[in-house]
Design brief:
- With 365 residues, the protein is of the alpha+beta class.
- It has 3 domains: 20-31 and 177-245, Gyrase A, domain 2 (2-Layer Sandwich); 35-171, no CATH class; 252-283 and 315-364, no CATH class.
- It contains 7 helices and 22 strands.
- The strands form 7 sheets. Strands 3-4-5-9-7-6 form a 6-stranded antiparallel beta barrel.
- The longest helix has 15 residues, at 194-208.
Length: 365
C-alpha cells in the first residue's frame, strides 16, 4: 500500500477554497436532466467465448426470436453455438436529445460468456422507466480487457465481459418537455449550503435586478424568468450559468484507507489535545526439539516443545501537544515535526476525532 504525502493535498485544498466557481458547475437546473435507458440484446461474432447455452437458456430463447423475426424457422432445432452471448445494454438519454441523434451505450454480459471482444451487438431496443422505446442500439463492441486460456492455465486482464459502443444508439423518440414555456426555474445545489445559496442569489440579483432570484433553502434557489424581462428561459440560464462565485466549503477530512490518501480541508481546526503514538510488537516463536533414547536403550522418540516470546516496543513519538484551534498548516507542521508517517496520520486523526477535538466532518472510505 502506497501512502501519499499530506503536504501535496494542503496546497490543493487551500487553492480550491479561494477560487471562484461557475454556477453551472455547482447546481442542477430544474427539468434539465437525463434519463436512463436499458435493453436486453444479443452479441454475435465471438471467437468461441460466448455463452454455454446449457447454462444460459435465455440466450437460446432470444436467438430463436431474432432468427424467426428474420424469417428463419428454428422451431424444434437444437442450437448450440459458442459465438453468441446475451447482454444487457445501458445508456443515458441526455436532456433535449432529438430524434436521429446518437448516444453512447455500455454492454455487459449476463451469462457465462468469457469475453465480448470482437462481438457485434444486434439491433436492441432501449426502454425508459415508462416502458417506451426511446433509442435503438447496434454496433461493434469495444471490450475493455483481454482473456486467454490454455489446457491447464488461463489469464484475464481487465474486464473482457463488458464493453462500450461509442455513438452506438440512435434516438428514436423525444421526451416531451416544453422548456420555453417555463415561468420559474429552480436551481438545485449539488452540495447544499446556506452561504453558497445566498451568494448565488446575490450574484443573480446583481446581474438582473432585485427579486429575480430567491433562496428557498440550503439546496434550492428559485428563479423568476418573467422578472428578467428576457422572455426565453434558455437565454436567462445561458447568462446565469457562467456567473462565478466563491462557494463555502464545510470543514472536512477525507481518508481513503485502501490507498492511504488523506485530504484535509483548509478550514479544519483542532482544539488543544495531547498526542502520543508508538508501535508495540509481540513475537512468539516455536523451536521444538526432538529427544531420542540412547542406543540399545528402551524408550520412544519424543518431541519436546520449546517456545520463546518477546515483547518489543519500537521507537514512536512521545507526548506532544497541539495548540488550541490549530489551523491546517499548524497541524501538518506539528505532526511532521513529530516524525509521523502518513500511514500513522490516519490512526492519529481517528483518535483526535474520537476525542472530540477535530472540528470537521470526518469521512472514512
Amino acid at each position: 500500500m502506497r501512502y501519499l504525502p499530506l503536504a501535496a493535498f494542503l496546497l490543493l485544498a487551500g487553492a480550491a477554497a479561494a477560487t471562484p466557481v461557475r454556477i453551472k458547475d455547482m447546481v442542477e437546473f430544474d427539468g434539465v436532466r437525463g434519463n436512463d435507458l436499458v435493453g436486453y440484446g444479443l452479441v454475435v461474432g465471438l471467437n468461441g467465448t460466448g455463452d454455454g447455452l446449457r447454462n444460459a437458456p435465455f440466450t437460446e430463447e432470444i436467438m430463436s426470436n431474432i432468427l424467426e423475426r428474420l424469417g428463419v424457422n428454428v422451431t424444434g432445432e437444437n442450437l448450440r453455438p459458442k459465438n453468441v452471448a446475451a447482454v444487457l445494454v445501458t445508456a443515458s438519454l441526455p436532456p433535449f436529445a432529438r430524434a436521429g441523434g446518437q448516444i453512447d451505450v455500455n454492454v455487459s454480459a449476463i451469462g457465462d460468456a468469457k469475453s465480448l471482444l470482437g462481438g457485434t451487438l444486434i439491433m436492441t431496443p432501449l426502454n425508459a422507466a415508462d416502458g417506451e422505446i426511446y433509442a435503438v442500439a447496434q454496433g461493434t463492441i469495444i471490450a475493455g480487457g483481454v482473456s486467454a486460456e490454455g489446457q491447464s492455465a488461463s489469464v484475464v486482464q481487465g474486464v473482457p465481459t463488458s464493453g462500450a459502443i461509442p455513438a452506438g444508439a440512435r434516438v428514436e423518440r423525444e421526451i416531451p418537455f416544453d422548456f420555453a414555456a417555463l415561468e420559474t426555474v429552480r436551481l438545485a445545489l449539488r452540495t447544499p449550503d446556506f452561504t453558497t445559496a445566498g451568494r448565488i442569489e446575490g450574484a443573480i440579483n446583481t446581474e438582473f435586478g432585485r427579486g429575480v432570484a430567491v433562496m428557498l433553502d440550503a439546496g434550492t434557489v428559485s428563479l423568476d424568468i418573467r422578472a428578467t424581462r428576457m422572455g426565453s428561459p434558455a437565454h436567462v440560464l445561458g447568462r446565469i450559468e457562467n456567473l462565478a462565485i466563491e462557494p463555502e466549503i464545510r470543514a472536512r477530512v477525507v481518508v481513503d484507507q485502501r490507498s492511504g490518501t488523506i485530504v484535509v480541508g483548509e478550514d479544519v481546526r483542532i482544539s488543544r489535545v495531547a498526542v502520543s503514538q508508538g508501535n508495540l510488537t509481540l513475537r512468539v516463536e516455536e523451536a521444538p526439539v526432538v529427544v531420542q533414547p540412547n542406543p540399545f536403550a528402551e524408550g520412544e522418540t519424543v518431541v519436546v516443545p520449546r517456545s520463546s516470546a518477546t515483547l518489543q516496543e519500537e521507537p514512536g513519538i512521545g507526548m506532544a501537544e497541539l495548540a488550541d484551534t490549530s489551523s491546517l498548516s499548524d497541524v501538518v507542521s506539528g505532526l511532521n515535526a513529530l516524525g509521523v508517517a502518513p500511514r500513522d496520520m490516519i490512526d492519529i486523526l481517528k483518535s483526535i476525532h474520537a476525542a472530540g477535538a477535530l472540528h470537521a466532518d470526518f469521512l472514512v472510505q
